[in-house]
Amino acid sequence: MTVKGFIFDLDGVIVDTASHHFAAWQILAEDLGVPFDEKDNELLKGVSRVDSLEFILNKGGLVLDSQTKLRLMEKKNAHYLSLSASIGVNDALPGIVEFIRELKSRGMQIALGSSSKNAHQILGQLELTDAFDAIVDGNRITLSKPDPEVFMLGARLMGLTPSECLVFEDAKAGVEAAINGGFQVVGVGNEIELSDADAIIDDFEKMNWERMQNLLSNS
Ligand code: BG6
Ligand code: MG
């Protein structure tokens, strides 16, 4: 296999923050009188904060000025940060830290490819910042997944081409972003949602170098 670099999404791949994002959006949607359920939230996984707000406003048929939108996003983020404040070093999803360590020990490069502007904060809480050769978060990109910008920049910062990288993603928008950029992608989670991925795993609990190679050679 010619893969030399691995790009990991953060939310839902390294740590389970999806429920916090969902809860924070739900509070906001309720304030606005817009119905918002888990199905809606599924569509927002991997999607930037501003595009997520636009989705909720569209759903409610609401048109707001940019000042109000900024205020609402700040409010949502304050909720999200207070809900995720308890995330600590033991909250990385099972197997992920060991897998990243194994990749590093084999000389692989590791990048983060996240839409979240809170990625540095969350990685810091997990004490994982130093595990990455490159960190691309929502502050470094202008286009949200499914645009491939986040992964293209991750690959570039590692000095690699998309075909030399493998992306791990839990979101439909993230899988599409990887495909749009010419990356191989492993979906983490729901087989139906992520059916476009080259391979799908439930989680990282039994993941290792050998398994990964088998997955890709069977894809
Ligand atoms: C993605 C999450 O990683 O980041 C989305 O899957 C979230 O749910 C997006 O909306 C943006 O996050 P943040 O932290 O910048 O609001
Ligand atoms: Mg994700």
Radius of gyration, in angstroms, nearest whole number? 17 Å
CATH homologous superfamily of the largest domain - what is it?
HAD superfamily/HAD-like
Q: Which stretches are poorly predicted, pLDDT < 50 over at least 5 residues?
A: none
CATH architectural group of the largest domain: 3-Layer(aba) Sandwich
CATH class of the largest domain: Alpha Beta
Globally, the shape reads globular
Portion of residues in beta strands equals: 5-15%
**Under CATH, the topology of the largest domain is which?**
Rossmann fold
Overall pLDDT level: 96
How would you characterize this protein structure?
This protein has 219 residues and is an alpha/beta fold. The protein folds into 2 domains: 5-16 and 89-217, Rossmann fold (3-Layer(aba) Sandwich); 18-84, Orthogonal Bundle (DNA polymerase, domain 1), CATH 1.10.150. Helix content is 44%, strand content 11%. The protein has 9 helices and 6 strands. It has helices at residues 18-32, 38-44, 49-59, 66-84, 96-105, 119-126, 149-157, 172-180, 209-217, and strands at 5-8, 109-113, 134-136, 165-169, 184-188, 199-201. Strand 2, helix 6 and strand 3 (134-136) form a beta-alpha-beta unit. Helix 1 (18-32) packs across helix 4 (66-84). The longest helix has 19 residues, at 66-84. The two termini are 13 Å apart. Residues 10-11, 21, 44-49, 52, 77, 114-118, 138, 171 line the site of 6-O-phosphono-beta-D-glucopyranose. Magnesium ion binds at residues 9, 11-13, 45-46, 170-171, 174.
